[in-house]
TrEMBL record, chain A:
Alphabetic keyword roster: ATP-binding, Cell membrane, Kinase, Membrane, Nucleotide-binding, Phosphoprotein, Transferase, Transmembrane, Transmembrane helix, Two-component regulatory system
Organism: Mangrovihabitans endophyticus
InterPro entries reported for this sequence: HAMP_dom (IPR003660), HATPase_C_sf (IPR036890), HATPase_dom (IPR003594), His_kinase_dom (IPR005467), HisK_dim/P_dom (IPR003661), HisK_dim/P_sf (IPR036097), MtrAB_MtrB (IPR047669), Sig_transdc_His_kin-like_C (IPR004358)
Domain Histidine kinase: 302-519
PANTHER family for this protein: HYBRID SIGNAL TRANSDUCTION HISTIDINE KINASE C (PTHR43547:SF2), TWO-COMPONENT HISTIDINE KINASE (PTHR43547)
Name under which the protein is recorded: Sensor histidine kinase MtrB
UniProtKB/TrEMBL annotation, chain B:
Region (Disordered): 32-57, 586-605
Cross-referenced InterPro entries: GerMN, LpqB_C, LpqB_N, Quino_amine_DH_bsu, WD40/YVTN_repeat-like_dom_sf
Organism, scientific name: Mangrovihabitans endophyticus
Pfam families per record: Germane (PF10646), Gmad1 (PF10647), LpqB_N (PF25976)
Descriptive protein name: Sporulation and spore germination
Domain Lipoprotein LpqB N-terminal: 56-155
Signal peptide, first to last residue: 1-18
Top-level taxon of origin: Bacteria
SUPFAM superfamilies in alphabetical order: YVTN repeat-like/Quinoprotein amine dehydrogenase (SSF50969)
Amino acid sequence: MPVRRTLRVVRRHWRVLARRTSRAVAPARREWRRSLQLRVVALTLVASSLLVGAFGWFVAAQSANILLNRAQDEVYAQLRGKVDYAYSQLGIFPSPYDTKLPGTLSTTLNYLADGEPAENGGAIVSMRAERWPTLEPVTSTGTDISALITPDMVHAVATEGRVARQIRTATVGGLTAKYLVYGSPVATKFGHVELYYMVPLTTEDRAANQIRTMVLVTGLALVILLGVVAGLVTRLVVTPVRVAARTAQRLSAGLLDQRMKVDGEDDLALLASAFNQMASNLQRQIVRLEEMSRLQRRFTSDVSHELRTPLTTVRMAADLIFAERDEFEPAVARSAELLQAELDRFESLLTDLLEISRFDAGFAALDAEHTDLVPIVERVADRLAGLAERVGVRIELHLPDQPVIAEVDPRRVERVLRNLVGNAVEHGEHKPVEVTMASDGAAVAITVRDHGVGLKSGEELLVFNRFWRADPSRARQTGGTGLGLSISVEDARLHGGWLEAWGMPGEGAQFRLTLPVRAGDRLVAAPLPLVPRDRHAVVEPEPGDGPATLPAGSTAAALPPGAGDDPADAGPADAGRADAGPADAGPAEAGPAEAPAADGVMEVRR
Amino acid sequence: MKRRATFLLAVTAAVTMAVGGCGIPDETPVLTVEAGPTPGPGTGDAAAPPRNNRQDTSDRATFVKYFLEAAAGDPDGAVDRVKQFLSPTAQTSFKPSASVTVIRLTEEPLVNQGSDEITFGAQEIGQLAHNGILSPTTDDTVKHYSLTVKEVSGENGLFVTKTPQVMLISDTALQQFYERRTIYFWNTEHTALVPDVRYLALSVPPEQRPTVVLNWLVEGPAAWLQDVAEELPDGTTLIGNVPAVDNGRLQINLSDQAVPANDRAALDRLRRQLMWSLRPDLPRTLELKVGHQAGGSWSSADYLASNASYRLSSDPERFVLYAGKINRLALSADAGQPVPVLESDANKNVAAAAFAGSENRTYAAVVTGSGGSQQLRVAGARAGEQAELQRVTMPAGSIGQPVWAVTPEEGPEGAVGLVTVGGRIYGFTARGGAAHLVEWPGPGGSVTAVAVAPDARRVAMIVSGHLYVTTLLTGADTPQLGTQPVRVPTPPMPTITALDWSSEGWVVVAGTRADNKRVAVMDTTVDGAQQSMRLPDLGSEAISYLSAYPASPTGPETSGSVAYVAGSRAYDVLADPSHIGVDDLAKPVSDPPSGVQPTKPFFLR
């Protein structure tokens, strides 16, 4: 149990640590992802460090080896000379107890040490006879050298009679140095004594260190130089690319006269000029299209206005005829009624066209005030109760008990709801229409659910198009203009809200209006799912048939002012929304819907 | 930027670590380079005589004999060896001088039953110093030594509990434990080597003998030779030991001072000196290093000529006086040749004569006349030529046997003659003229005979019947005798009557034996340490004249060419005396007058 607990604690700490680390390195990771220059420089540094490091290691190791080998050869040659001399001197003693032997040992040692620097740090010669304890060991410097001659060495030389060497670091006479210790038996007539020759490797060590330092410094300088060169070269390439990117961003932000500077005749200059040419072509096309669009809108508006005056006259005449219809023949009376009805349609069509052209012209203004939405919904239901009764559809309201106060334009909201509920009643197929409202404090959502023929795949986007009909051959019963949902979308967008549709053939459709509680707030989630609750299980795994998220208008409203100028920040902003979005919305809308287009082009992205 | 800095730091650390691991290591295990040399076979010291220790005997007489051997051998351990014979208490009080006293027992040690004290009488022969020099003792009286030999409780064997504060060895121990070695020094004129006799302990292993000899050479010649023998240059030392002979090669390393820079002659002299001194140990090649420079290596035997003794012919020219004329003997070299130097009409009325030859000159000294009208005439001539004899003026008196000492000078000055006149020595040259008195610096009075060693730098003489050796300096206007004459005791012959050099280290003397009063001929070393009777009993007729042709140092120790005159007859010393008769003359004498015998045989030196 304690193990498991400990493991749990460890795991928790590990997680905390990992989180902190990832948080700490997040800026670095971001920088890494964003900067090509950093990546190139870093990779160059790593690669050149490895290369230079390996090469430097090789050079330094080889140099140290050469130095050491030279020292070893030299010392060994000297040792042989010394052993030969000692052999010649000691070879005349047939007995280890010869009275002259100790004297000869020390004179021999003096001779052997003659020429060696006597001060500290010089070579040391020592002679000993392990097998003959009566022979005192003699050492040229008289210092204690037990640290230099290890028992292993003594064993190899004295017991096994081999010439051996070893490197030892020891403090002799107050001086710490590396010593190359050579030991050799010296044959005598009575066995052998041992000669040890200890040479400090101070010079070699210093040389090796100098080489190492030199290699290190050179290598570092080389690596840094390579890094700088890589940085400069990358900068040479990256700077125009960055300029191009910035220019492209500005272009996409609408600054169509932005151009790149063309320097020289190289590939980058080619890129810049091609880029500039592309920008010019785009600008020309966009300007032409804008002009055409403007002319079209102007034309619609003008036509609407121009039609209103004759329509008013025709209306007055038609009203007169309609009022007098009872006096006409039934066929004429019927014509008068038809005239009256078509004039109503014509008038509302004109009204809608004017509304649309107001939106297009950007004259639509939000007249927001704190409003309780519940009465609005009830009022819409009341108004349509007649129609509903006529087509045999029951309108069911699922409203909160307490008032839902939001900062909205009640006229526009009512228009949207009337449109939605009217459509639902019209396509209700005698089945009940459910209107549901919910609020979570930040947003208010109202869904209108019918159980009619539903929408085919892809139609949930098309329904918001102007003059779009699901079945062009179908008779128009309510006499709708075909602009209602278009206007509703514009209304929702004006509020900074969303209007979305979902539908399945044979299963009906559901529309959801989501509005922020405070005008200008950014929507992150809707309190009600777009896909009806009774459909969740079926829809979820089928992205192709899935509901369309239509944040078209809402997206523009959701964006902070001027945010469109810097697409670099769009990513995290979207990510934030994506994270918060699916909290209680259906998974189908989990994918962030983006519609960067300022001209209202709608697009669904999963 | 922060990331970049971290990265750089990491790279630096990695590089540092990688490079840091490739210097000279701090420690390594023991690595075998190769198998070590195998020890050479021990030569053993077969030459060393067996040594008798304290516990080897319980017989007191033998014990004393062993005790008198203890100090013999390597001088470094002499005191310790003697102390092994001493009881612990005697050991602590035993503080002898460094030299060893050599004694000749005159009687067997007297062991008395019931007494621990053992006494014996002995003559002191001399002091053997650590450098092998035996300095003869002039006092030849018999001294009595007494030792207390007894058992010590708790220990095995006998101990000496009381002993004189000297290290004693008997003369037999000297013969048994030592080898007589002659080392050589150049004479001051660098013409020949002067021998110097030393005693080398046989216990010194053969490999160490060259080292010992070299150290003796470095220490310089014996005191009495110092004014004729040249020391090695000041500061000369032997560097290290002389290594054992390797591949027929003996390597000697002397310090720089041994030879003056670029002095090839000095180097050549040095190597000749070394080769002669090391001759018994000399292998095929001698290699000499002076300082750290190679001096050279020599294999030939040309060095032998540097010793005047060696230059002597193996077949000497012999002469004899017959009827007042100098005659050659038949059994000698150049027997058919005329007598050298002397013109034939000058060869008459001769009472004594001496010939000496240098490389290209021959010198003659002739004593003519008899009684009070004796004259000394001398001449020097090129080899094979004759010269007129010149008279040497000197005080009147009985003129003894003249001798020549060949000097390095050229021409008539090339030899110095010595002659005794009335008990004093006079020096003369080959040119004649006045003889100069040569002062005898030693004790005693009458010099009756003088003999010059082959090296011409040492003389032996009989002063008041005793044998003396000293040096002869010929460099000055008049020859001089060395100031430190050494009396060589000849105990078997308290008084000697005639002498000559038997070899470079031996003198042959004639005299009357102390023990049986018989006349005898005896060889003695120049230090008196060893004496051997050549002809122990020649009756009672005294030997008035003795002449010898010294033996070569490469041959036997003593000469085989010795002749003497006893009474009026001359004899050759062979295994027995062999009379030299008229028949032995080179030119046969027809009808020899009776009663006239060849006399005073002599050699061309």
